[in-house]
Amino acid sequence: MDKLLFGGRKSEDDTVVEMLASAIRRDISFGVLRPDQKLKLTDLRQSYGGSNHSMRETLRILTSEGVVEATNQRGFRVTSATEDDLRDILLVRLEVEKLGLKRSLEFGDVAWESRVVAALHAVRRADALVQDCPDDVTALEWDEACRDLSMALISASGSPRLMDMAAQFYGQSRRFRLALLREGRIDFAARAARRTSLQEAIIAREEARAMRLLEEEIGADLGA
């Protein structure tokens, strides 16, 4: 009974599904699997491996994340990636992360501040690495560092569900952000200056300033 309630070791199937999801998620992020592309089980298994069951479970997980969607014909496809899609994703991201930051500013302690400072340091290093060597590996590491910063900012919110929602919409915006990176449209200097100001606002508990800087940070993913 305890294992059913609290979970035991991961099964081999769970590990396979995680690996498949990671590979497909990555290819969606880099545009190998194009927006609105149909995802047929036979083609996916040929490219990525796995059984019909593990691939269906993988697609179910990616659907719950919002990067794949089920079609009326009981198939799957990559979700669309229009400018309207991006604006909608960032709209929700902003509202969720603003609420998380507001609560974190209210409830966060020195340990929270330390997590934010550490995440900012990691992002600075990732910025430098991806500019020196802009390959797929460093691009993903850079994006993961940016994600860790977003999660650190709201980590004192006291709401696991809010954090899960923020992570979901961050993941949905990844392919747009990586496209900006590939196109050389990331203003690293402006982001670095803004994040330094954000750190100062957090330490000083200046809520209005922190919210404005967070809005600018998320808005930068529009590439305007």
Poorly predicted spans: 1-7
State the total count of DSSP E strands: 3
Shape: globular
Helical stretch tally? 11
The CATH topology of the largest domain is: Four Helix Bundle (Hemerythrin (Met), subunit A)
As a percent range, the share of helical residues equals over 70%
What string, H for helix and E for strand, traces the elements in order?
Answer: HHEHHEEHHHHHHH
Alpha-beta content class: mainly alpha
Cα-to-Cα separation, first versus last residue: 54 Å
* Average pLDDT level: 92
Strand percentage: under 5%
Give structural notes:
The chain is built from eleven helices and three strands; from the N terminus they run ααβααββααααααα. The protein is mainly alpha-helical. It folds into two domains: 2-78, Arc Repressor Mutant, subunit A; 83-222, GntR ligand-binding domain-like (Four Helix Bundle (Hemerythrin (Met), subunit A), Up-down Bundle). The chain is globular, with a radius of gyration of 19 Å. Residues 1-7 have low confidence and may be disordered.
Descriptive terms for the model:
single chain, 224 residues, mainly alpha, Arc Repressor Mutant, subunit A, Four Helix Bundle (Hemerythrin (Met), subunit A), 2 domains, 4% strand, disordered N terminus
Topology record:
Blueprint: H1 2-6, H2 12-29, E1 38-39, H3 41-48, H4 52-65, E2 68-70, E3 76-78, H5 83-107, H6 110-132, H7 136-153, H8 160-172, H9 174-182, H10 188-203, H11 207-219
Antiparallel strand pairs: 1-3, 2-3
Helix pairs in contact: 2-4, 5-8, 5-11, 6-7, 6-10, 10-11
